Every structure is written in structure tokens, then in C-alpha cells.
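Thread: "does anyone have the structure for this chain?"

Original post by V.I.:
We have the sequence but no experimental structure in hand. Need at least a predicted one for the grant figures.
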Amino acid sequence: MAEDNSTPQAGAQTDEKPQLKFSLQRIYVKDISFEAPNSPSVFQQSFKPKVSLDLNTSSKKIADDQYEVVVKVTAQVNDNETGTTSFLAEVEQAGLFRISGIEGAQLDQTLGAFCPNLLFPYARECVDNLVNRGGFPPLMLAPVNFEAMYAQRKQREAQQANQAEENTH
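Reply from O.Q.:
Generated one for you, C-alpha cells below.
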């Protein structure tokens, strides 16, 4: 007695769900900027930095199963005593992702949290390199929890939707 270990023929109907596919196609810098408006005088005083960091993510559909995700990091460092700007570094780190078989909220979370987690180490290295080339001590940015940022953004959107609904009644 022989067992049938054959797989379905090409084109045969199966009840399987569409296969999930995720791949990173390319990582690239979309925009980069460094300014040290008060140099060289900023190098002639003691360096007492006050760092402000702004972090944003965005995504857009490029083709049927291709998406661009961008992590924008803006680091501004001012002198803690005088308030003068030591430097401003801005990096838009982007990635091109091929994603299929993921839809709705799961796709939104993938684009809003998972992909930025993959891109952030590249953005962090780029900012550090810019700052170093600008003649300043390294700026080692701490890891970021994009899952928490995504959850906070969704919570804010839900609150705004509720407020808008209450205002219409």
C-alpha cells in the first residue's frame, strides 16, 4: 500500500490563505542635513549640550506590493547655559519594502512600527557620523520603541475621532 505524498499541481485550487511575504528591497538616505550656525565660536567655549530630539515616521504605497517607509530624525543641540545652537542634524532614512499577504491593521502596524525598527539603527549611525564630522562629540541616540510610538499614535487618533464625533452631535 503506497501513500500519496504528492503536492497539489500548479494551478490546482487549494483552501490555503495567501502566503505572507515580507522583504527589505533597499535602504537609503532620502534627505540629510547638518548645520553648525555658530561655528567656530561654539568650539571656543565649554560644551554643555542640551539635546532635543524629534522623531517621525511615514509610509506610502509605491506599487501593488511595494512600500516606502521613512524614519525622520532631527537632533538639535543647544548650549545649556547660553541657549545658542551648537548644531542641527536631520536625517531621513528610508527603506523600500515588498509586502504581500498582509492587510488592514496588520499592514498598518508593519509599516508604522516593524519597518521603522529595521531602519532606525541606520538613521542613528548616520546622525552620529554627521555630528562627528561636524567636529562635535558623538551623539549616541538611545534605541526607540516604535511599537509604543505606534500604539500612542493610534490612541491619539482614536481620541481625536471620538472628539470629532462628539462635536458633530
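V.I.: this helps a lot. The helical segments are 104-133, 146-168.
O.Q.: and Residues 128 and 140 are 6 Å apart (CA to CA).
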